[in-house]
Amino acid sequence: MTKLAKTEAPGAPEFAYRKGELCADNVPLARIADEVGTPFYVYSGTQIERRYREFADAFSDARATICYSVKANPNLGVIATLGKLGAGADVVSEGEFRRALAAGIPASRVIFSGIGKTASELEFAVAHDVHQINVESVPELEALSAVATRLGRTARIAIRVNPDVDARTHAKITTGKKENKFGIDIAHAASAYRRAAAMPGIAPVGIAVHIGSQLTSLRPFETAFRRVAELYRSLRAQGIPLERLDLGGGVGIRYKDETPPAIADYAASAKRIFGNSGASLSFEPGRYLVGNAGVLVAKIVYVKKGVTHRFIILDAAMNDLIRPALYDAWHEIMPLNEKARRGWKEADVVGPVCETGDTFATRRKLPPVEAGELVALMSAGAYGASMGSGYNTRLPAPEVLVRGSQFAVIRARPSYDAVLAQDHIPPWLTAN
What we know:
By secondary structure, this protein is an alpha/beta fold. It is 28% helix and 25% strand. The protein has 13 helices and 22 strands. Strand 21 (399-403) and strand 22 (406-411) form a beta hairpin.
């Protein structure tokens, strides 16, 4: 681990020490902690805007649409920040679709992805004249045809093809190998398109591909893109009037010492491969836009000296940020008060949940910290709060959005009464 040799977080100049205090934009995180309590999430609106503009500018000379992948962080404040910049939305459920609409993104800028869309979800999408539905199987295609025909509508679809490309990322977030559950094998795609073209209520308009998340090399993208380009040319030659290419997301970010590709290089690669296709392009970044833009702030409850390990016990837990437990993911841990670069000690940083897996870091070298101090788990803006739960009946962490010197709570911490009110005891258990 780099010992705070610099004063900003990985990939996030908006999170930096200013006069010895860790800040989001120009707001000290300790000031937010005083108002909302810990643990809490905070997002830099400035960084979200900057990252979106970097992505959009890289494709400014192409017919390209950027649809934010809502699953990365579905808070309405985050979606609205991107929507106001012109982003569309990539959604994988009716709930995410409704979030996009509530945040001001019209259905004409929404792509509906996901492998298990129900008939009611398909009906919702068709009724709202969604921009595009990415179909992932022939049974889904048949179900969509039935829904569209019943509604008297035509559904614009892209078939998600599985190009059998190893993204060389974590096994749980790779999606483009033939053994993965996603998409239709690229070898069978032509027959699926011919079938789609003959179905009532279906208008095949494009091809979709997405091979995984947190990719730090361009090579897997380029391999997948070339296979999709070849398929696109073949299908057009067969008379299927495709005009769109949905190239997914997956560009990685820096958590520790990764060196993800520059977005300009990613864009140059895509434009080089598809520039002469005549198709419009769409992209679905999620983590790239919000991952480094968020942190989880927690308080140290105890510092415990075990027989073989020293434990720093936080008031945040795996129900707040599950990535370390689920993916063995690394998150930089920074004290809110800047520390001198001496006296660093190894410690396991853990939460209070009754699971050994409730561990954020093992044998991590950290500066001297004591109970009552605050720390930030960095690069937690993607798949942090969105994967949170109420395990151990712990209250979900609130979420805060910062922009410049302003901040606002964009999701409040619920009360215990509100959480308990979600349950109902059946009458036979309350009768005397």
